[in-house]
């Protein structure tokens, strides 16, 4: 077999690593290629196999002389030579099995280093593992490392940038919109805080779900059969007071699943990827909001336009919100990718292979969401609020938008009719025609209908004045915005880089 492996190795010796990740190449950030790039996948498999060898050495189960090969230098040398492309080629040509192909490659490179001892050590690779002890555990290692080293720092960066905007615009008045229509006054900071709070919540859940990601080293059916029968378990307990599985996974900074079959229970990873899907949706939300607020007729949010940028191939005057449109569109892909996760929570008995190819696509959820994060991180610090447009749009219906307050004030002042109907069908048309505030029209109407006079007298004069200043009618919008900003600070303080004293 080694001669056949050698021929395949020669074909790939000088070829660069293939670092494509699941999904369209256009949406693949370089930051995640060390974890999910195609040729790096087999390297995580190798990491698990190397951890297994180190535990066998600790248990004095390896031939004594071979342990001199278990150095960090040897590990890095072998890891650098292993690629998924090479593994795939050996699998197709020789083994017809991915992990057996990986082992063939490792043995070849190991024996090319120090033949006598290497040949002995090579026999101990993958003992007493099954393929999905290696594969499932390696995937979890990759997900966890990618999360802490790339995705979570990017998420904290976005939370910090949004928090700055929330504080800056906490008291900048904006007309609230429901169903696309003018509703009641809010502030720009409040609007941003509603999305920021969602992102903070998801960040906290992601940390919790990441902590639940576990590995396995329980054998072909999950019952530790060979580990128990052949003494691995007994020796582990005697020497270290831990299970063999715990020792191997500790090398990888993992805990074991409470119970497993040939594969890990699917729920922990599914929940973790669900949070990424929800994060993708929250990024889609801010993108949709900003895209709509950049409409020509609204223009409340301004996205920076680069000096060499083109908005349209046909219309040079256009300033299309292409970043926001792209980020929102990615969510459509991500949510559909998550359907695949749900499709493989079922397996025949202790395991079948129908979900094998599907699970190879799961990292695409993380990859696409990371792409969104990096896009939004580039633009959020540079967006600005167009205060002139905010004031102009607010003025359109400023005399109407306190309709809820007027009708409730009528009820509280003792009006015995249908207050909602009075405002809706009488005061609103009058106000639309005159441009006066609803409360002003109510006072004028009371001069025509004497039954309204005692009602007007029961409305405090301070409230009557307030109902003519809708810009001040923002409730707790500013306070809630700052409350969310403090939550952002707390999260960053807890998980962000620690400042030196």
UniProtKB/TrEMBL annotation:
Keywords: Lyase. One of its GO terms (biological process) is 'de novo' AMP biosynthetic process. GO terms for molecular function: (S)-2-(5-amino-1-(5-phospho-D-ribosyl)imidazole-4-carboxamido) succinate lyase (fumarate-forming) activity; N6-(1,2-dicarboxyethyl)AMP AMP-lyase (fumarate-forming) activity. Residues 48-330 form the Fumarate lyase N-terminal domain. The keyword Cell division does not apply. GO terms for cellular component: cytosol. The keyword Cell wall biogenesis/degradation does not apply. This is Fumarate lyase N-terminal domain-containing protein. It comes from Candidatus Nealsonbacteria bacterium CG_4_10_14_0_2_um_filter_39_15. The lineage of its organism: Bacteria, Candidatus Nealsoniibacteriota.
């Amino acid at each position: 077999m080694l001669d056949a492996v050698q021929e395949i190795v020669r074909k790939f010796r000088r070829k660069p690593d293939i670092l494509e990740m699941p999904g369209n190449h256009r949406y693949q950030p370089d930051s995640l290629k060390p974890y999910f790039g195609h040729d790096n996948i087999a390297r995580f498999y190798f990491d698990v196999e190397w951890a297994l060898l180190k535990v066998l050495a600790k248990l004095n189960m390896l031939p004594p002389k071979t342990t001199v090969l278990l150095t960090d230098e040897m590990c890095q040398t072998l890891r650098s030579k292993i690629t998924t492309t090479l593994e795939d080629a050996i699998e197709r040509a020789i083994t017809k099995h991915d992990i057996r192909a990986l082992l063939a490659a490792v043995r070849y490179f190991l024996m090319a280093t120090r033949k006598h001892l290497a040949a002995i050590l090579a026999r101990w690779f993958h003992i007493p593992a099954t393929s999905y002890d290696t594969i499932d555990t390696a995937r979890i290692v990759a997900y966890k490392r990618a999360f802490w080293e790339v995705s979570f720092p990017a998420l904290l960066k976005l939370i910090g940038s949004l928090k700055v905007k929330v504080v800056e615009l906490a008291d900048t008045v904006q007309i609230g919109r429901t169903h696309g229509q003018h509703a009641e006054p809010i502030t720009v900071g409040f609007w941003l805080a509603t999305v920021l709070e969602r992102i903070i919540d998801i960040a906290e859940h992601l940390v919790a779900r990441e902590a639940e990601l576990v590995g396995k080293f329980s054998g072909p059916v999950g019952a530790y059969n060979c580990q128990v029968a052949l003494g691995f378990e007994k020796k582990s307990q005697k020497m270290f007071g831990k299970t063999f599985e715990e020792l191997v996974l500790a090398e990888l900074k993992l805990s074991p699943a409470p119970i497993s079959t040939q594969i890990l229970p699917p729920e922990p990873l599914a929940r973790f990827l669900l949070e990424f899907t929800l994060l993708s949706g929250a990024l889609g939300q801010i993108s949709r909001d900003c895209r709509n607020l950049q409409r020509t007729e609204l223009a409340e949010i301004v996205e920076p336009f680069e000096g060499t940028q083109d908005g349209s191939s046909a219309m040079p005057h256009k300033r299309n919100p292409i970043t926001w449109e792209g980020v929102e569109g990615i969510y459509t892909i991500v949510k559909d990718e998550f359907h695949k996760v749900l499709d493989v929570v079922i397996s025949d008995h202790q395991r079948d292979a129908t979900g094998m190819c599907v699970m190879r696509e799961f990292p695409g959820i993380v990859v696409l969401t990371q792409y969104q994060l990096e896009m939004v991180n580039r633009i959020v610090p540079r967006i600005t609020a167009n205060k002139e447009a905010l004031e102009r749009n607010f003025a359109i219906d400023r005399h109407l938008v306190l309709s809820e307050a007027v009708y409730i004030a009528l009820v509280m002042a003792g009006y015995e009719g249908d207050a909602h109907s009075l405002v809706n069908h009488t005061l609103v048309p009058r106000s639309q025609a005159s441009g006066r505030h609803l409360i002003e029209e109510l006072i004028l109407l009371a001069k025509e209908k004497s039954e309204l006079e005692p009602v007007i007298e029961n409305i405090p004069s301070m409230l009557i004045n307030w109902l003519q200043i809708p810009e001040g009618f923002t409730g707790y919008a500013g306070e809630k915005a700052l409350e969310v900003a403090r939550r952002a600070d707390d999260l960053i303080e807890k998980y962000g880089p620690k400042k030196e004293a």
